[in-house]
Amino acid sequence: MERIYLDNAAATPIDQRVLYAMLPFLTTQYGNPSSLHYFGQQARAAVHKARAQVAHSLGVQAQNIVFTSGGTEADNLAIRGYLQANHPDGGHIITTAVEHHAVLNTFQEMAYKGYNVTFLPVDENGRVDVADVQKAIRQDTILISVMYANNETGTVQPVKEIGMTAHKAGVMFHVDAVQAFGYIPIRPLADHIDLLTLCGHKIYGPKGVGALYVRQGLKVAPEAYGGSQEHHLRAGTENVAGIVGLGAASAILEEERQARCEQAAALKHFFYEHLIQHDARFRLNGSMTAALPNIINFSIRDADGSVILIALDMKGLAVSAGAACESGAVEPSHVLSAMHVHEPWLRSSIRVSFGKENTREDIEKAVHIIKAMLDLTGSKEDHHE
Amino acid sequence: MSKRVAVAMSGGVDSSVTAGLLKEKGYDVIGITLRLWEEDTLCEPINNIHACCSLSAVDDAKAVASILEIPHYTLDFREIFYHEVIQYFIKAYAEGQTPNPCIACNKFIKFGLLWDKASQFGADYLATGHYARISYDSEREIFSLLRGTDRRKDQSYVLYQLTQDMLSHVLFPMADLKKKYTRELARNWGLPVFNKPESQDICFIPDNDYKHFLRKNVPDYFKPGDFVDQNGHVVGRHKGIPCYTIGQRRGLDLGGPGGPYYVTAIDTVNNIILVGPERNLFSTMVRAVDASWVETIPQHPFQAMGKIRYAAKEALCMVYPDGDTAVHVEFAKPQRAVTAGQALVLYNPEDGERVLGGGVIV
User: Which terms in the Gene Ontology molecular function aspect does this entry carry (chain B) (predicted)?
Assistant: First the structure.
């Protein structure tokens, strides 16, 4: 069976060029970057180069990049590490109701530890109002964390405005840019961002590697204790191949981001026009404008999202219901709930995310498969007709 | 193209072997595991941290599916399970009954909503690891539900609500297997669950302490009251109606000359537990409601073998239909501790192999 992969927001395929950059460090160049000899120095140079590549893609200094095991670890390091190093005794911290669980659950843990937490609401498109951020800031507010773009809907937040608001009040600003990085040129310095999370497997790099940008001079406490790797911020022997992969993927991304945006946007619009726009069985979740070009989230009236996903997988179409859950079961999305999406739309949301390997033909087939599947399973509306 | 079968995989050895057998027979097998209750209740968080893995059943099923090279999906049925099974279970105890949640689960969950979903994604059949058999009489054009070959493992009792429509697309591949052979097959196929212990009686109460479960969920049900004997004398205090079931002797803490005492009846209105000697537990007359018939709806009295609980031995009885959905049953010999809430399941009188139907004892 021919399979079509439209779940690039979960994981992208690895770019061949990235793979080839990584391969030596999985085969012949196995040295430990901490070793003084030739082998160690080769590995160290590779990590150094990757750090420069990631830094360059953000317009920051290489020394401000810390490699981690992925986005989740970077989010934890940013939030917990910043609070531990600067405000260990508590304070007020702000985030949004639509964050990825890596941030949401970290904030919940901080609330349990005694920090005061505000979860900001979003509008029907999933966007935070900067005025709400302004209103939420108190005397004792110390940190704001807002994702650049949402992983379920692609909705892009007014990050720069929030950053300015935060900095005016002397509050630190963390941004999870895991989804946005591949499609939006991010400039932490101009965007008033103090801490920024990235990861490899959303930008055609490998899984198991991410990075945290830490503004020059900002104190962050490590989460793991051990060696002095990563400026004492992340003990443990470096994942050299993964880091090289993230560096290579970032460098290629800088060159190709614009083209990828245009390609994804064309596919997304085609998909929207041919499936969603003119059919009352579908509802777009989020907006077509203030969103990433590669993610589209929609619901099917009265349908059961989990059944739809299984039926589509059996037809060879790989999409998702938003966030992947550990057990694989589909749960009502906290993002859509926060956007006040109600029944009959809440349990049938589907996220389709495009990538550079996808063609117009793929999308035509996907639209066809979804329509045919609905005729088979029938959304309730059909039964009554 | 081969027929597609959705297998309800619990992560246990029976349903794992079920999937393997169907795969060997050439079916297009899909594994489905249901999330039915909050696994988190298994391990109370320590300092807000979930310190143990709570998804082991789903993980086991996924591991088996990957070894058998079949696709596997998880469906979140927690909401319907809570409403149809857990709430029913709780309510029954409030009403002084002893529920059988597996029967409710089979009706509403496995052979209800799961089949509904599976058929939507193109399954031709639903298979489970139950030990029971299905046969088809092409002359009468009727499906029959029969006991599993291994009588000790027979589970036809919890399946009496299966209808003709359901039987036409259900497969029970374990029907003819012996349990020992099941584990051998699992081991031969390299399934890691081959030596997994038997599942609990009640899946959503993993520690088997149903009183603790009820106390946690509905503390109001535990109102102390009186034990009253057959002469109307108060002989002690009870700890709340959910603590007792008909026929129970242990845990009453009733000494005295009138003993030993057994629970003979539960009066929820007056919050009284009636106790008496063992002979008071025996009765020949049983009434059951919500009756369901596998093959045909009986219009006239008939003989059958009746079984009043999962572990009871079936016994000869006369069945008097009372409309389509209720029956009066008179056993030839008195039955011990007939308990409201349990199922009365009726088998054919000749050899007791074929399920005719059943209902809930009132």
Answer: ATP binding; tRNA binding; tRNA-uridine 2-sulfurtransferase activity
